[in-house]
Design goal:
The protein is α/β, with parallel strands linked by helices. Helix content is about 30%, strand content about 20%. Strand 10 and strand 11 (about 200) form a beta hairpin. Helix 2 packs parallel to helix 4 (about 160-175) and helix 3 packs across helix 5 (about 215-240).
Amino acid sequence: MAGFTGRGEAGGAKAGRPRLLVTGFGPFPGVEANPSAWLVERLADEADGPGLDADLRTAVLATDWQEGPRALDLLWQAHHPDVVVHFGVAAEARGFRLERMARNARLARPDVRGALPQSAELDEAGPSSWRGSLPLRRIHAALASAGIPADFSDDAGDYLCNAIFYRSGRYAAEAGRLVMAGFIHLPFCDSAPASPVRDGVADDGVAGPTCLADEMMLAGARLVLASAIAAWRERAGSSFEGD
């Protein structure tokens, strides 16, 4: 099950204050403690702190082919987010890996229950890919200015990270309003498994990751959220003039 925190309203965002959804993942085969879960839980603790001008909801999604997407559906239906940032982990990440594209594909890899996906496609009627809508160049510039490593990627993998990214891409595209949504991969740190993990799956052929200290990871995530919120408010600002 996903862990829900924060506040949400079914109506539209008020006075330029967006509804923000941030998710991470729980454990999966080979990894007992997922850094993205720790990160999201820390961000949830700061929900009412200074500097985050958004209505925040967070969730730690099960790395489960059925339960993960189902929990995401409930979050979209309950919170009607304006900005969505998904975090996950990948062995290739050398910092914040900003994903630009989600693909309508997955491999038969076991989830946390050992279950396999039912098909090679995420959505038989869906497009071959979705392009994320987060302001990645702005996010990259903010991270680089703070000395936090970051790069771009066009391959979100073929596991639950890509599946969740694709699903949120569909919701964002079909929202009928301004919604920014995307996915960011993080490297492993203290929870790195004995065998390196590629997009949530152990893979002995992949070089090990570069570790980010907890505080740097948290600082980077704050910059990601602040950059996304600022970009959304700039684009949506005219909608609130005269309200």
